[in-house]
């Protein structure tokens, strides 16, 4: 592994900063354009390399202190070190670059990004795994489990569930927590390794479903779905189904499409 000094000049999809060294593109997580850094090469390919950030020689004015204490170890977030206005600018630039390079647009027809009302406390689902008997998220590019004590991007009811959840079930492999932001519904889906069902005590209104391989879901309490309402439409969301993770922004998308269609 070699260490080099690198000037970062742009951002890539996924939140990695980009620099060039001896004609090769270098991707560096948790760095920012305009920064000069000492990095260590950890993966080398013919046309590019990946590196880890060792220390910053110069810092960008767009850098902020991450709100989450697990940021940088947990693999769930990539942008918390970037101010939110700068995130919007970088992401717009990334989309524009992709449209020019891949879509062959000379002047990509981009509108301004519709920013979120709040970039924190928005996520309505959490996919958690078990490691050493503790719930957490997987580390970036790894199967290692990072136990988490808090997650500030989760909607508040889910973060309370995460911090209050007590785990004593050896056969639990994964757990998905979902929240209906506009309905107040909560759903916990527990994936188990075998077919031994646990005894559960739940002291708040929540639906709970057990899921095992090759076996239909077993409803422990409540329903095998939660409800959410967006744009005046009520949805039934099953444990494994896709739904936009940011309910408030999903409503914005519905409004924009409705306006464009003149329904």
Task: Walk me through the structure.
The protein has helices at 84-101, 156-164, 247-261, and strands spanning 3-11, 16-21, 24-29, 36-44, 48-58, 125-131, 134-138, 145-147, 172-179, 186-192, 207-212, 215-221, 226-230, 233-237. The protein is an alpha+beta fold and 263 residues long. The strands form three sheets. The chain has a seven-stranded mixed beta sheet with strand order 8-7-6-9-10-11-12, covered by helices on one side. It starts with a strand and ends with a helix.
H-E order: EEEEEHEEEHEEEEEEH
| Structural class by helix and strand composition | alpha+beta
- The total of helices stands at 3
First-residue to last-residue Cα separation: 59 Å
Task: Summarize the main sheet.
Answer: 7 strands, mixed
Question: Which labels suit this protein?
Answer:
14 strands, 263 residues, alpha+beta, globular, 7-stranded mixed sheet, 5-stranded mixed β-barrel
What is this entry, summarized?
With about 260 residues, the chain is α+β, with helices and mostly antiparallel strands.
Layout of helices and strands:
Blueprint: E1 3-11, E2 16-21, E3 24-29, E4 36-44, E5 48-58, H1 84-101, E6 125-131, E7 134-138, E8 145-147, H2 156-164, E9 172-179, E10 186-192, E11 207-212, E12 215-221, E13 226-230, E14 233-237, H3 247-261
Parallel strand pairs: 3-5, 10-11
Antiparallel strand pairs: 1-2, 1-4, 2-3, 4-5, 6-7, 6-9, 7-8, 9-10, 11-12, 13-14
């Amino acid at each position: 592994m070699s260490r080099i000094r690198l000037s970062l000049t742009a951002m890539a999809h996924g939140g990695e900063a980009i620099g060039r060294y001896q004609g090769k593109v270098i991707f560096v997580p948790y760095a920012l354009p305009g920064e000069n850094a000492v990095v260590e090469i950890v993966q080398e390919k013919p046309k590019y390399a990946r590196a880890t950030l060792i220390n910053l020689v110069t810092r960008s004015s767009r850098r902020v202190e991450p709100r989450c204490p697990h940021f940088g170890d947990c693999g769930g977030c990539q942008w918390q070190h970037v101010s939110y206005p700068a995130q919007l600018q970088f992401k717009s630039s990334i989309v524009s670059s992709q449209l020019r390079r891949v879509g062959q647009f000379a002047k990509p027809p981009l509108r301004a990004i519709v920013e979120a009302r709040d970039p924190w406390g928005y996520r309505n689902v959490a996919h958690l795994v078990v490691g050493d008997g503790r719930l957490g998220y997987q580390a970036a590019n790894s199967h290692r489990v990072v136990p988490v004590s808090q997650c500030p991007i989760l909607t508040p009811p889910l973060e309370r569930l995460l911090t209050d959840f007590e785990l004593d079930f050896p056969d639990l492999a994964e757990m998905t927590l979902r929240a209906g932001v506009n309905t107040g519904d909560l759903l916990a889906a527990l994936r188990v390794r075998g077919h031994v069902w646990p005894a559960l005590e739940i002291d708040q209104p929540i639906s709970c479903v057990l899921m095992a391989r090759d076996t239909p879901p077993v409803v422990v309490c409540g329903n095998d779905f939660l409800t959410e309402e967006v744009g005046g439409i009520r949805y039934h969301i099953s444990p494994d189904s896709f739904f936009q993770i940011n309910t408030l922004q999903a409503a914005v998308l519905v409004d924009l499409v409705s306006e464009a269609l003149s329904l």
